[in-house]
Amino acid sequence: MEKYRNIAKSILDKLQSRGADMAHCTVQESEMREFNVDGNEFSLFRTLFNRYIGITAFIGGKKGSVSINRFDDEAIGEAIENCISAASVATPDTAWELANGNGEHCFKSGATVPDTEKLFFRTKELLNDIHTRHPKIMVEQMIVKHICAKSVYMSTTGNCYLSERGKYVSELMYSAHEGDKSTSFFGSDVTVTDLDKPFIDCALIERELTDIENQIDSAATEGKFTGKVIFTPACLVSTVFGNICGNFVSDSVLLEGTSLWKDKLGQKVADERITVSFNPSDKRIVNGERYTGEGYLSEDYDLIRDGVLQSFMLSKYVANKTGNLRAKNSSFALIIEAGETPLEEMIKSIDKGVIIGRFSGGSPGTNGEFSGVAKNGFMIENGKITHALSETMISGNLADMLNNLVAISKETLVDGTVVAPYMAFDGITVSGK
Question: Terminus of the chain with fewer CB atoms < 10 Å: N or C?
């Protein structure tokens, strides 16, 4: 760590000598050991090393940023000159601000030393488990890896953060095949700090593999109706709350003034059963964020608590521009509180609707309207799953959905990056043939 600290301090000293009013620098080295499987066969093992230096300087309210992947004096000197040059042609802005005077902090989390032999064992085991338990599944690609990173973040405003983090990641892309029939592809990922459990027993991988196998024989929905849709946890995160965050509470839409929720702080925006937080310190989040790019120490916070909007996801810069408060972290360590209804009971309560595992469509507009293809889904009729879906569209409005909640499941996805249940919403248009 001392090497990284010395590099960062030298860079900041040189930036200040060149007129920087404030600056920050990140110096990082990382190592990744990776196994690849393609078409059900091992195809690659490699170890990758990466160096990174990110430099940002502010001169007279003008910001310049550069990044490089070398640690030698010549590359660093050139990067400093480029950073100064970038700042010199930028537009002045008094809203830029860095955290002040937090001092030195050390952070260490996860598996910082890899067990490569056990990682290979777990990788072979996962491939064998899929072959044995799910013979119709074709593993199109599997990437299993260990990543360890050591870094120093330092600023001229009195912050120095030393970090060492490690994790194991399993990424699966697969589809099911039987004769000439096949399903749409699907992905299952998990991030862990140890290799105590088989990968197939982590997150919802076993259930997701089963669901894909059951989608080989699919049929289109007949006609068009407005009904209930259950979003699987991964789809809930990416399709629903990922877009809600981007369209209603992010830096860009608050800065542009296009957010439907720009005047909704402290007001009800969702069903009172919905609570959504960003909690990087939660033990279920692997290598959670400990500080932001602006140098603030990360704290957990609620986005929505009991249906009421508690915060925007704002950087300090946009908070200063808009007169709001900055978010207490800049992570996407999303925690959606589970409910009390078992998934099977949710399904039984639906007369006509669908459950979807993936959504394919354009980004919703700032008004929350969305439309696209329901992928990896099933039809629900009279409280039972009847068949897998094909050629089915869904459309609705994200803001309206949150107030048309049917139920939240007891079951949750815990994949090391997010914690999320199944959610069922009413009032969504489903269109088939």
Answer: C
